[in-house]
Amino acid sequence: VMAAIVGAAGLAPAIAAARAGKRLLLANKEAIVVGGALFMQAVEQGGATLLPIDSEHSAIFQCLPEDRATWHQRVDHIVLTASGGPFRSRDPKTLADVTPDEACAHPNWVMGRKISVDSATMMNKALEVIEARWLFNLAPDQIKVLIHPQSIIHSMVVCRDQSVLAQLGTPDMRVPIAYGLSFPERITSGASRLDLLTTAALTFEEADAVRFPGLHLSWAALKGAEGSTTVLNAANEVAVDAFLNGRLRFDRIHAINAQCLADLQPGDCGSIEALLALDARTRQHAQRLL
Questions:
Q1: CA-derived radius of gyration, the chain
Q2: Which of 88, 118, 173, 199 could pair covalently with 124 via S-S, beta carbons 3.0-4.6 A apart?
Q3: What CA–CA distance (Å, rounded) separates 58 from 157?
Q4: Three-state secondary structure call for residue 200
């Protein structure tokens, strides 16, 4: 089963597939961001095989041994790479003027408009940090992010002995999809071959909290009360929709997300119904803030 429904709407079907013991190819990061412990509990109880399809999480998964029980013994931390999106080098003071078309013009990947905006704000990477916490059973501080504009190294695992394992390839989603479909074997993906002799120099930059404040909400949400990641995701969906429809400035997306995190106490998160109720409550609050 490929779980690829965009947003929190993908939570219930993804959990149903997990409980049914399916081979679950997870392309919908929001399902695990919203579901968290409940989602992973469903995977374990159903005996499902969970395979990440995001290029970054697939890269981490490919660098780890098939025996998941040994992961915690091997890993010091992981590094998720990010292209930096279309505004990596833009003056942060000018971000108030960003248009939806500019935000959706990603330099390396072709994506839907919502995900493209998330990439431009780095909220997409924030959601990936949260997803990685659950997929690989890591503490929040074991997840790092580096800007890597070329999108050739898709992510890295830093082992306990400080060896660094990385997965490289051209920026083409056919590679992680093919790996998920064929796991544990490998099949032809149709992607272009990576030619290191003609590839530009690989560079890395700090994920600037001034330029990308949304990224750092991921660690705040993970360290907050259970359900904080549900709040963050719901607020962001409302804020991005408002931006795409001309109701909110690009640089105010972060303000809506941060205020919802500060204002709302999650409460009960023990069932799908409770999580969806929290999602709805957050959306109402975000609309009031708008």
A1: 18
A2: 118
A3: 12
A4: coil
